[in-house]
Amino acid sequence: MRTIILGGTGFIGKALARLLSGQGHEIVVPSRRPDKVPAVLGLGAPGARIVGAPFDGVTGAGWAEFIDADTAIVNLAGENIADGRWTPDKKRRILDSRLDAGAAVVDAIRQAGVLPAALVQASAVGYYGARGPESVSEDAPAGTNFLAQVAGRWEASTLEAEALGVRRVVVRTSMVLGRGGALAKMLPPFRWGLGGPLGAGTQMLPWIHLDDEAGAIAFLLQTPGLSGPFNLAAPEAVDSRGFARALGRALGRPAFLPAPGFALRLLLGQMAEEVLLSGVRAEPTRLLAAGYRFKHPGLAGALADVLGRV
Q1: CATH number at residue 209
Q2: 133-162 burial by CB neighbour count: b if 16+ within 10 A, else e?
Q3: Which pLDDT tens digit goes with each residue over 149-193?
């Protein structure tokens, strides 16, 4: 099987490409620098074929020809939401990058003239907005803040593919724990013994190990009949205070120094409010019902595994 991964050189994309390549998939990564793709991914599974295809960021030109009835498409492309303060320009890039990638997927399918076997469309648990401690499954309504609006429009960016008859899965992802990503930014203060919860620490902090992020996407791609939204979050729920304690224990360091909410708001503005100080208890209801088994269902084991690799 061939899998086209938009965002395939990113944190999640590389893990997914490695997993699928090891299963014998041909991997195609649309990129503005297609010649660099094989080296960036570093994939060398026996018989694996890694292809970088030209991508202008907004259309299917250069990669639509790779689509056939045995092809799957995974759209992970989008500007990093947690990289600094949200200026008006940053917010525009966050939204436009996602809408452009979605439009490119639809354009490529139309150019190909044949429907791919499946499409996985990325989203985030931010879709639900800021919530309290109650459990939230996939049938919960969307929130109203900026992140919720972005997630909703991100999901809708490939709705036309579904209307054309493509089996489409939407993955609402939590904070992903692996070598890189959010955890890499957290580690230095925790290793110095200066870590702790963010703000009051009572906001829920859904998470998922990178192995399960990639594993769940592969499972959803390869299980016929599955479609619609799926929360990609580990079964063990934890708030910011509990996460800080677990990370401190994993590192053998104290984790009692909170980052004051007012200071985070002063430094990072709306990004701090929506990403760091708000949360949702997203449950993997549909994923578990479909039969997916987590490799890392508990936070302590997930952190031990990641930190053992760092």
Answers
A1: 3.40.50.720
A2: eeebebebeebebbbbbbbbebbebbebbb
A3: 999 999 999 999 999 999 999 999 999 999 988 899 889 989 998
